Amino acid sequence: MSMERTLAILKDLIRIDTSNPPGNEEGICRNLVELFSKEGIYGELISFAPGRPSFYAVLEGDHPGSLILSGHLDTVAPLGSWSFDPLEPIESDDRIFGLGACDMKSGVAVLIDLFFKFLRAGKPCYSLKLLLSADEENKYRGAEAFRKAGLLDDALFVLVAEPTDAIPLIGEKGEFWARTHFQGWEAHGSTPEKGVNAILAQARFLLELEKKMPALPPLEHMGRTTLNVGKIQGGRQPNIVPETCFAELDFRLVNEEQKKEVIHIMEELGKNALPESKFSWETISYKRAMLADLNNPWVQEFLKVYREITAEDYNPKAATFCTDLPTMFPESCPPFVIFGPGNILQAHQPDEFVEILSIKKAASVLEAFLKRALYS
Question: Is 234 within 8 Å of 161 (Cβ atoms)?
Answer without folding.
Answer: no
